[in-house]
Amino acid sequence: MSSRFSGGLIIDIQKPDFELRTAILLIKAQERKIDIDMNAAQRIAEKIKDTRELEGALLKLLTISLSSDSASNKISIETTERELKKRENSILNKTSPQDVIRAIASYYDIKPSNIRGESRKAEFVRGRQVVMYILRNIMKLKLEDIAYILKRKDHTTVIHGAGKISTQRLRDNSFRQEVDGIIESLGLST
């Protein structure tokens, strides 16, 4: 049976990039006769990576613009920014540092206690530093709070760890995709 499948076409399906997400959003808006500002469409596509969520966001913004007192029913950049900020705050409030630690531990196949522990094994250090990066750069937690959560002596360890991940993300595209995938799985945006 597997030999029959192996003779078939194999296609690697990637998530849509920014341009494709923008195009999808504009096409969906056109199909539903929704007037949307180009900058608003680009901002939505920048913040929302999932194609199904794009359509949901579009419909939510349409509802808001129709219920506003504005004479125009066009989805503006101002309305979009305001609603994206609300969405981001809502997601941040739902995701706890413990959720991040569990997700990283699961991804790297280590125990959450290893992330909080003292071991300097490479796989533990990497997981720990990715947690530091997400808590600092994505969730915007204070350095001292992150140090406390991860049982580090002081905030300088967090600065070093988060900085190391930031640098590696710039240098290594596959690592950036790995970290971005983890961030997206948590429902956060980069």
Automatic annotation (TrEMBL):
Pfam families: Bac_DnaA_C (PF08299). GO terms for biological process: DNA replication initiation; regulation of DNA replication. GO terms for cellular component: plasma membrane. Residues 96-165 form the Chromosomal replication initiator DnaA C-terminal domain. SUPFAM superfamilies: TrpR-like (SSF48295). It comes from Candidatus Roizmanbacteria bacterium RIFCSPHIGHO2_02_FULL_37_24. This is Chromosomal replication initiator DnaA C-terminal domain-containing protein. One of its GO terms (molecular function) is DNA replication origin binding.
